[in-house]
Design brief:
Blueprint lengths: L1 H20 L5 H31 L5 H24 L7 H25 L6
Helix pairs in contact: 1-2, 2-3, 2-4, 3-4
Length: 124
């Protein structure tokens, strides 16, 4: 459910950027904003995938990957939104921490699904 909400917000953010910010932001800041919206959407879909995997594998530990995606969106996307919209350049060092959080979430999701499959459970 949270992934669906975040995806909806991502669509709205993308539309806002494409229609309202194009004439306001400098190209590098618009590119940072666009990156934030794209990664928000990727990881919103990842959260939906995690929710499905939790049900398929009946493994609540998979939910940790979804929470890592949510944390990564706050750190990665949030820092890029802050830089692009408010000029908060000091947020720059936070962006890679969010990226590492995304990577950790994908690794955890892959690991848990692989472990489930190797134990004879259903595959996605």
């Amino acid at each position: 459910m949270i992934g669906c909400v975040v995806a909806g917000v991502g669509v709205a953010a993308g539309a806002f950027g494409a229609h309202m910010l194009k004439t306001i932001l400098e190209p590098p800041m618009l590119a940072a904003y666009d990156t934030a919206t794209r990664y928000q959407m990727y990881h919103a879909f990842g959260m939906v995938l995690v929710g499905m995997a939790v049900r398929i594998y009946d493994d609540r530990r998979l939910a940790k990957a979804g929470w890592l995606f949510a944390t990564g969106m706050i750190l990665f996307c949030g820092s890029l939104y802050g830089i692009a919209l408010a000029g908060l350049k000091w947020l720059g060092p936070i962006t890679p921490v969010g990226g590492l959080t995304f990577i950790t979430g994908w690794g955890l999701l892959g690991w848990r699904v692989w472990r489930g499959m190797s134990q004879g459970e259903k595959s996605l």
